[in-house]
Write a structure and sequence with these properties.
The chain contains ten helices and 14 strands. It is an alpha/beta fold. The strands form three sheets. The chain has a ten-stranded mixed β-sheet with strand order 3-4-5-6-9-10-11-12-13-14, with helices on one face. A hairpin with a 4-residue loop joins strand 5 and strand 6. The protein binds iron/sulfur cluster. Iron/sulfur cluster binds next to loops.
């Protein structure tokens, strides 16, 4: 990108309107361009057919439109699609389309790599290289929406921020992307169909509550015992469970929205009655449900999913305490697109 050209999608609608006014044009022109950029996903100024040629040339001289490219696309036997997405600077992230009978969910990335170091996660091995820009997050959603229409004859219905990276470590850009996804001049999706999944950064959970965000919150919990959680999610030492629980109580107080806990059960790590009792106890803090997720070994087999008997014991104890629990089968395992497997292997 020439040094003097700015990515036009870094501008807010108001900034675009102001830009046109400084050019002696009408502020309304900013609305038109904004709609081309976000609602119609224009890749070039020439696509903007209701804008005069002279104005398009002026935009061309001042700005670029950075767009992601789907570098490779893999389809799993179960219909799941994994996109390896090339960013404007050549770095790659992955996003996944997960189809079920009635819905299509996009699992999107928020960072290139991850600065956290969960020991069971393939992305953790990549280390964080940079945060994604709002448009790079938005474009992953647009790409999956197109694939959903092409392969499943229906638009994208849900979005989860559960791909590469910790979304709360890139909060401002994630929020800007969600704004564009939910705005009527953007994709017009309901925030109720969006879930941000975090490993649990208490300060940022409180900030989300203060910001009155309208999307759903999920927390990758995996253990409700500090020493166990720290052994698999080392940042738990800095953000222990008491702080996490306090932030979730704060979230519920302000938003009145229940929380989803993501939970994987591994052999020899969190498979005892003590682990189950601790989870049940943790779940009593705020209204919640638990998703028990099937685990996909990432290589050497250090982490093995616990047996059905142990998982059934979790379910029995949670249900006995009136806590809603679902077991989530993993999708796209054959293409390394399942939860915790995203590691740019293609
Ligand atoms: S599980 Fe999530 S937060 Fe943890 S290392 Fe992987 S991508 Fe980062």
């Amino acid at each position: 990108m020439p040094a003097n050209k700015k990515d036009i999608r870094a501008l807010t609608k108001d900034q675009l309107r102001d830009f046109f006014v400084t050019q002696g044009d009408k502020a309304f022109r900013g609305n038109q361009v904004f709609e081309w950029l976000w609602r119609k996903s224009a890749h070039s100024f020439d696509d903007m057919t209701n804008i005069s040629k002279m104005t398009r040339q002026m935009l061309e001289e001042n700005f670029v439109i950075n767009h992601i490219e789907v570098d490779t696309m893999q389809r799993s036997a179960d219909g799941t699609i994994k996109n390896a997405v090339r960013l404007y600077d050549g770095l790659i992230v992955e996003s996944v389309l997960i189809p079920t009978k009635t819905r299509t969910t996009a699992c999107v990335s928020s960072q290139v790599g991850c600065s956290l170091d969960c020991t069971f996660c393939a992305t953790a091995r990549l280390k964080r290289m940079r945060n994604l820009n709002p448009d790079e997050i938005f474009d992953q959603v647009v790409a999956i929406d197109k694939e959903s229409k092409l392969y499943f004859n229906r638009p994208l219905s849900n979005i989860v921020f559960m791909g590469m990276g910790e979304p709360l470590m890139n909060y401002n850009n994630v929020i800007k992307a969600i704004d564009k996804i939910t705005l009527p001049e953007g994709l017009g999706m309901s925030p109720k169909r969006i879930t941000l999944s975090t490993s649990g950064v208490p300060k940022m959970i409180k900030k989300m509550a203060d910001d009155q965000v309208k999307f759903n919150l999920a927390v990758s919990l995996h253990s409700a015992i500090d020493e166990v959680r720290t052994s698999i999610m080392p940042f738990n030492e800095t953000f222990p469970l008491t702080d996490l629980k306090a932030s979730l109580e704060y979230w519920y107080d302000k938003t009145k929205r229940a929380i989803t806990y993501e939970y994987i059960v591994w052999n020899g790590i969190n498979d005892t009655q003590r682990d189950i009792d601790a989870l049940v106890n943790f779940c009593k803090a705020v209204p919640c449900k638990v998703n028990i997720i099937e685990y996909n070994p990432i290589d050497d087999g250090e982490f093995q999913q616990a047996s059905g008997e142990i998982i059934n014991n979790y379910i029995y104890n949670l249900e006995k305490n009136r806590i809603v629990v679902n077991v989530r089968r993993s999708r796209g395992k054959d293409i390394d697109a399942a939860c915790g497997q995203l590691a740019n292997k293609t």
